[in-house]
User: What shape does this take?
Amino acid sequence: MFYEPFQIKGFTVKNRAVLPPMCMYMADDDGIVKDFHITHYATRAIGQMALIIQEATSVTKEGRISLNDLGIWSDDHIAGLKKIADGIKANGGLAGIQINHAGRKSKTKRPLAPSAIPYHDGEAVYEMTIEDIKATVMAFKDAARRADAAGYDVLEIHAAHGYLLFEFMSPLTNKRTDAYGDRLLFLKEVTEGIASVWPKDKVLMIRVSAYEYRDEGLTPDTVSDMINSIKDLGIDMVDVSSGGNVPARIIPYSGYQLGYAKRVKELTGLPVVGGGLITTLDMAEYAIREGLCDFIYFGRLALRDPYFVMNRAKDMNVDLEFPSPYSRGKQ
Ligand SMILES: Cc1cc2nc3c(=O)[nH]c(=O)nc-3n(C[C@H](O)[C@H](O)[C@H](O)COP(=O)(O)O)c2cc1C
Assistant: This one.
C-alpha cells in the first residue's frame, strides 16, 4: 500500500510519503528563496517522496515565525518560489507550499493575535483590530495567487501549532467579544479568500492541530466540526498534527498522533496525512492498511535521510524504479 499511488483530483500521487513543511530558517530578511532551498526540496523529490510541502512561508513580513522565514508577501517572491516548485516537479514530485501567519508566536517586533494573551508571560502581543484582520485575510488570498503563479499544485493553509489561524480557532487563545469571537469566522474568511483565487483543479489542504493536550482546548472532534463547516469551500485534504498553541506536557512516541488522524478522517470523510515520529515503513504500511490515514509525513527522518523512500523499498519487497542517474546504485 505505502508504495501504491493515490489519486487526488487530476494528480496521481505516486506513493504515500509526504515531506511535511519544515522551516529551514535559511532566508534573509527579504524572505527570498536561496540556492539552498532549491537543492533541499529537489533532493527530497529525487529521494522519491511523493508530495513535498515547502516550509511555512509567510504571508506578511510581520507574520514571520523568525527573521529567516521564506516569504510570499510580495510579487518579488514569485520568481524564487518558482525555482523551488520547478525543482520538485522536474524530479517527479508533487509541489506543495504551506502558507502561514505566525500570530503571537512571531519573532518580529509587533506580534498580532486574536487576543492580547502572550504565549510566554511577559511577551509583547497586540490584539488585532478589524482592519488588521481584513488585511490579513487579503494577505492570505494574495499569497495563494502567488503560489499558483509560482507553479505549486498543492496549497496548505497552516492552521496548526498555535499560529494565527489556530489562535483564532482555539478557546484558549480567542477571547474576543466582537464577531471574531466566533472562532470559525477568521478561518472561514481566509479559506474563502484563498478558494476564490486558487484553481479548482489544484489541491487545497489544511494543517490542523487536532489536540491541544488540555481539557479546555480543541480535540479531534471539535477540530473536525470546524473543518466540516468550511470543507465545502474547497478543502480537499487534511494534514493532522497536534499541540503548539499553549505550553502542555506532550509525551511523543512513534505514531502518537495517528489516532487523531484516524478520527479526523472518520469525521470529515476527507483524505488525511498523518504522522509524528514515524521512522519505519512497517509502521507507515500499517497506518495506511488499517485506514488510519492515506499519507504519512516524515519530517526529521527526511532531514537526515532524504533517500529513505528509495533505499527502503527492497525491505518492503517493492521493486522501485530509481531515477535514471541513480539506477546503478540500486544493487
Ligand atoms: C526543523 C523543523 C521545522 C518545522 N517547521 C514546520 C513548519 O514550517 N510548519 C509545520 O506545520 N510544521 C513544522 N514542523 C513540524 C513537522 O512538519 C512535523 O509535523 C514534525 O516534525 C513531526 O514529524 P516527524 O516526527 O516525522 O519529524 C517542523 C519540524 C521540524 C523538525
